Amino acid sequence: MILKGVKFDKSKGMFSAALSINGYKLLLGYYENYNDANDAYAEAVANRKNGAYKAYDDAYKEYMDKIELLSSVGTDTNPDARIISDTSAEFYEWMSGNFNIGTRMYKSDMYNEYLSIDDIASKYLSARRFFIWVDKYIKYKNYESFKGRDSKGRWIEAYIL
Question: Between helices 107-117 and 89-98, what is the axis angle to 10°?
């Protein structure tokens, strides 16, 4: 039986199996042959029906509830609602406590630290999108930013105008 969660990955020369949960792809792994990938996908589907991914589903529902709550809050009553709706409440909270003015912060360190505290974001938030969010936060706070690169990697500094 051919299942929709299995495909051949030309770059790796292997078959991949993936399960879609709430619109997000959960990679199950790479396999040498089609039958192994097919079996892994079938097992994951059966496990999902038996509640194996309930924690993931619950976390996603909680996240969507927060988004709905934020979208119901107007900018008249909450001036932070705009930046939160453009990013996420968790990101705004994290940046408010972890973004240091006048300090050189390395982008990869920021990204990895944020992903370590936000389990849901680690499933969907790319580094590129994260840095777009960082730029939006800096603009929202009316900071002046400087970006560069050195032997440790890409960095960003922000200063109050």
Answer: 130
Helices (runs of H) and strands (runs of E) counted in the chain: 7, 6
* 148: its two tokens: 């560069």
| pTM for this model (two decimals) | 0.54
Beta-bridge mates of residue 116: none
Place of tokens 């990955």: 9
Give the type of residue at 126: S
Each residue of 37-63: pLDDT tens digit?
Answer: 888 888 888 887 777 667 666 766 776
Q: Which residues of the chain have pLDDT under 50?
A: none
CA 32 to mean position of chain CA atoms = 29
Amino acid at 134: V
Region class of 121: left (phi > 0), else alpha (psi between -120 and 50), else beta: alpha
By the 8 A CB rule, do 82 and 124 touch? Answer: no
- Give the DSSP letter of residue 158: E
